[in-house]
Design goal:
single chain, mainly alpha, about 85% helix, globular, disordered N terminus
């Protein structure tokens, strides 16, 4: 009976809003101007009875407007909508384009450096990449881990807690960024030497890394807000932000390197300046209190910080794993082929970043929908989204695999047109790597789903097994027996093994928690 009355109340309020938008605007406006000073003004200008009437009127007005705002906030949340296969893909599409475009403009950096500076400068970017991936992973950890928790709370209609937690996570990431900047500048030489920067690569790596450190705050903000734009039900905002950043980056790359001859430093400055665009847009967007998700004065709860870190730790571990793999690949190729081998690894790493961004974009795009309905305990919607999600990922995987085989010659030629030796090495690796993407998309989806169901520890464990249990041993031993082929085959083998491990654990979690 109570539930029926509540539903009837929500329905009536929604009808009122649809029929009378002017009244809603009037109520919202009145809510903002009612204050003690205004009540005191009425008291001085009116009789006691008139003052009492106005006081009661505006008190009721304030109460009802707050109720209307809460209802509209709930009903306007895009995560609560009914999705079909088409609308689900369209909802995730802005995130996919966003991540794809983000990876593409990173590749443009590499193309400009390879063409306008030299191959050693190009290889030095990959030397620095493990640290950059760690820093990016920290922002993504709080973004992915925190967004799953906050989307779940929004599904439970706990909007005030969601806003408080979001604000607290943002401030925490700001503090961590400042600490990372300090450590990076103090131990820069030691870090780059440990990463494998030779005497030839050190000057380029140092010039690039120190500028990136200066812009760390905007990098962290960019990766944090990308996840929360989706939670707020506005993935298009993230797309607009990244498109603006990407176009700016490409233009500045050309201006700084082609016109002003700033070399690898020009690429770093262009990256930092362009990354500021999504961060500034995110700050402006989330400072609007009328948004579904917005900044507020946080109530500090370190359990939420801990839970977000643990839940999103799989994202950090995945970035760290990529960094560790890049580190090991660089060292193996330096011993086998020298700096030219590192350049070949850099080409493959760029392509992996592009194709993984397609899978990750779709998975991250649908993850808040799953978390929201998990909080709302809507099993039917979860089952539908999971089914369509796996079908879409399978189609994307097939398309990616075929594209890599068909266009491998043309893609590698973009980076290594003037160096036949580099072209041959990179082309071989590119074709072998293509087999990795048959199951790579499914692995990313299952990993993101673990996080959506607040099982980030399992995803983290799998990432650790994949990296340190499979890839590290293979890359340490195989190259010494079969040369560069031993480097290229490690990831395809690891992806196939991890898929069956993830599938087993995922089915177990689904049955235990009775999610579907």
């Amino acid at each position: 009976m109570i539930v029926t009355k509540k539903l009837s109340c929500v329905s009536n309020i929604t009808q009122i809003l649809e029929k009378s938008q002017k009244l809603t605007k009037f109520l919202s406006k009145k809510l903002n101007i009612i204050s003690r000073a205004e009540i005191l003004f009425f008291y001085r200008q009116s009789s006691y009875l008139r003052h009492l009437w106005r006081f009661l009127f505006f008190t009721i007005l304030r109460y009802n407007t707050e109720k209307i705002r809460k209802v509209t906030k709930m009903t306007n949340n895009n995560l609560a909508k009914n999705f079909n296969a088409k609308t689900l893909f369209l909802f995730a599409l802005p995130t996919m384009i966003m991540m794809l475009f983000e990876s593409l403009y990173s590749i443009v950096d590499g193309i400009f450096v390879a063409r306008l500076v030299n191959i050693n400068a190009f290889a030095s970017i990959n030397i620095v990449m493990p640290v950059i991936l760690f820093l990016m992973g920290t922002g993504t950890m709080f973004g992915v881990g925190g967004s799953a928790i906050i989307a779940k709370k929004m599904g439970e209609k706990r909007y005030e807690e969601a806003n408080s937690d979001f604000s607290m996570i943002t401030i925490t990431l700001l503090i961590i960024s400042l600490i990372d900047i300090l450590i990076g500048f103090v131990f820069m030489d030691e870090i780059l030497e440990w990463l494998g920067a030779t005497e030839v690569l050190m000057p380029y790596a140092k010039s690039y890394f120190q500028i990136i450190l200066f812009g760390l705050l905007v990098f962290m903000g960019q990766f944090l807000f990308q996840s929360f734009f989706i939670v707020a039900g506005e993935p298009k905002m993230g797309l607009i932000a990244v498109l603006g950043a990407g176009i700016t980056n490409i233009i500045l790359d050309y201006i700084f390197m082609a016109w002003f001859g700033m070399g690898i430093e020009g690429a770093a400055y262009a990256t930092v300046i362009s990354s500021a665009i999504p961060t500034v847009m995110g700050i402006i967007f989330f400072f609007n209190p009328k948004r579904t998700l917005s900044f507020t004065l946080p109530k500090w709860n370190f359990k939420i910080i801990k839970k977000s870190s643990i839940n999103g730790s799989s994202a950090l571990v995945n970035f760290l794993a990529t960094g560790v793999i890049a580190f090991l690949f660089n060292h193996a190729m330096l011993e086998l082929l020298g700096e030219i081998g590192v350049a070949a690894v850099t080409i493959i790493a760029y392509m992996e970043y592009v194709f993984n961004s397609i899978f990750l974009g779709y998975c991250v795009g649908i993850a808040p929908i799953i978390s929201f309905n998990f909080g709302a305990k809507n099993r039917q919607k979860i089952e539908y989204v999971l089914k369509k999600g796996f079908i879409t990922i399978a189609l994307l995987s097939l398309l990616t695999f075929c594209s890599m085989l068909l266009f491998s010659f043309d893609i590698v030629k973009i980076f290594a047109e003037d160096n036949a030796f580099l072209y041959d090495i990179a082309l071989t690796g590119f074709i072998i790597f293509a087999f990795k993407y048959i199951l790579s998309g499914a692995n990313i989806l299952i990993s993101v789903l673990f996080t959506s169901f607040s099982k980030g520890k399992i995803s983290t464990l799998i990432a650790l097994i994949r990296t340190f249990g499979l890839i590290v041993p293979m890359v340490l031993f195989l190259p010494f027996y079969i040369g560069a082929y031993g480097v290229w085959i490690t990831l395809p083998i690891a992806e196939f093994i991890v898929f069956f491990v993830e599938l087993f654990l995922f089915n177990k979690i689904i049955k235990e928690r009775k999610i579907i």
